[in-house]
Write a structure and sequence with these properties.
Blueprint: H1 2-21, E1 25-28, E2 31-34, H2 42-54, H3 56-82, H4 93-99, H5 103-131, H6 136-160, H7 166-187
Antiparallel strand pairs: 1-2
Helix pairs in contact: 1-2, 1-3, 2-3, 2-5, 3-5, 5-6, 6-7
Amino acid sequence: MIPTLIITSIYIAAQMLADITSLKIVHFAGLTMDAGTLIYPITFTLRDLIHKVAGKQAARVVILLAAVVNLFMALFFWIVSLLPYDPQAGSQPDWNAVLSPVWRIVIASIVAEVFSELIDTEIYHLWVTRVTRSYQWLRVLVSNGVSLPLDSLVFAWGAFGGVFPTDAVWAIVWSNVVLKGAVTLLSLPTIYLVRSEHPSD
């Protein structure tokens, strides 16, 4: 129970941080990307850990719960951005500029997260039930190897297609894929840190 709660909490926190920081496009390690990409890739391996510890249905629930939390967060930020400033506190223009949601990015991010991580769940489950329960690192590599590029495509084109030049959008896609792939490789050993409580998953 405790490992599941810890992993789930980290997963949802990482999803929230990724959605907030996706509002900024950065240049990192020679790559152009939304800043959310710096933390978001770990959610795929965290999802795999949840799947291993709590099962397929739990993984699905956590994915949808994270989407609801992120949508509520964006709505709450939007409502707060509409409230007038207290004149006694002075001007606070930076708050709206930073945290007021850009709905195109918010929706693209949530859709990409749900779509790609539900696919990750199905591939992980099929691998464990139809291929092999051995080589746990390989189930993570295979499931993430399919879902990460899909996530990058859906998010980048949904958020920035038609807004940025085509070359810029593709640069964001490829940068996302490269960084997410690197994080997947680094995080592979973490699948061995938890014990499976659901043999069928």
